[in-house]
Structures are given as structure tokens and as C-alpha cells.
Amino acid sequence: GRQLALPQCWTKWFNRDDPSGSGDWETLDLLYHENPGMICNRPLRMQVRTTSGHSVSSTGNVITMTDTRNGFVCKNSDQQPGSECANYEVRFLCPQEFCHPKVCWTRWFDQDSPSGIGDFELLCDLRAENPGQICESPLYIEVVTKHNHMPADFTGQSFHIYSPTEGFVCRNRDQKNRRCYNYKVRYGCPCDV
Ligand SMILES: [Ca+2]
Ligand SMILES: [Ca+2]
């Protein structure tokens, strides 16, 4: 089975306009046009804050539009007489594949066996024994049984640790028959690192 570190990721903050003129227009069509390739096609969420880092509600502005399909607009003409929009910035939550389009897998590691208290394949130990072979921030971990390559998720065993950032631990005492299989692990890293 594969465990994912970060199912999604945020883009950087975008601030393409300011409220001089008709208002603050941070619309997706203009952001796409001006930042090709930097925002996914169907953002999962959008966050908006003022450029000084305050929440939208703190400004008292009437917001004309705010949604993940169209982006954000605050029109000065929608505000109380004499007041205008704050300057806002926006960012978008995108699927992980967008942020790291290519995943490069390490080789398989198997440094422990389940004799003793269990099968310990911790990332820090694997790093210590295999310097330079595992990237700084793995995105995925894949764990299978050593002998027949069965994905860990399908073995019916329960795992104490199973995470791209920590590694894998199967404790014998957590199993019905008091014995873990022997597992091997590999890590999925961004190819560009
Ligand atoms: Ca702005
Ligand atoms: Ca093992």
C-alpha cells in the first residue's frame, strides 16, 4: 500500500491588483493568464487575506465574489460611501500531483525483521544506514511484504507507524497472531530534488 504525505498543496500567494481603480480583482481567469502553469485547473480551495495578513472579515468590506471557480473580487462601488476595498491576496489548494508532477522512487529497503518486538523500518534509521539515498521530504511511502510483495494495506495487520515522514513500524503485539510479516519499504520523492 501507499501512504501519502501531503494529499494537497497550496500555491504561493498571488496579488495581481490593488484597490485603486474599480476595486481589487484577483480573478482566476486573469491569474491563470498572468501566471501560466502556476495554478491547477480545478483548485480544491481558495484562501484570501489582506496583503498585511489580516482576515477578510476584519476589513468590513462587502465582498462581491469569492469562490474557487472564479476567484475573488472586491468592488469599491459595493462599499459604504467614502470607503474602499482593502488590498487582498489569494492562494489555491491544488492536488498533490500538480505540485510534484513526477515522483521518483527509491530502491526497496529492508533493514529489520519481525523477530524481537516487530519489524522496524524507520526513516531515520534507513537514512543513517543509507546516506544520501532518501530525499529530505518524501511524498509517499510504499510498504509490501518482503516475500510475496503483498501491499501492507491488504495483509490485515495493524501498523504502529506508517508514514512518508516517519517510516514504518509493525509491532508483533498489535497482531492477532502476535507476529508481523517481514516488510520492505520504499519512498517516493519529488524528481526535481
Ligand atoms: Ca490585490
Ligand atoms: Ca523488514
TrEMBL record:
<dbReference type="InterPro" id="IPR025155">
    <property type="entry name" value="WxxW_domain"/>
</dbReference>
<feature type="domain" description="WxxW">
    <location>
        <begin position="10"/>
        <end position="94"/>
    </location>
</feature>
<keyword id="KW-0732">Signal</keyword>
<dbReference type="Pfam" id="PF13330">
    <property type="entry name" value="Mucin2_WxxW"/>
</dbReference>
<protein>
    <recommendedName>
        <fullName>WxxW domain-containing protein</fullName>
    </recommendedName>
</protein>
<dbReference type="GO" id="GO:0005576">
    <property type="term" value="C:extracellular region"/>
</dbReference>
<dbReference type="InterPro" id="IPR039675">
    <property type="entry name" value="CILP1/CILP2"/>
</dbReference>
<keyword id="KW-0964">Secreted</keyword>
<feature type="domain" description="WxxW">
    <location>
        <begin position="105"/>
        <end position="189"/>
    </location>
</feature>
<keyword id="KW-0325">Glycoprotein</keyword>
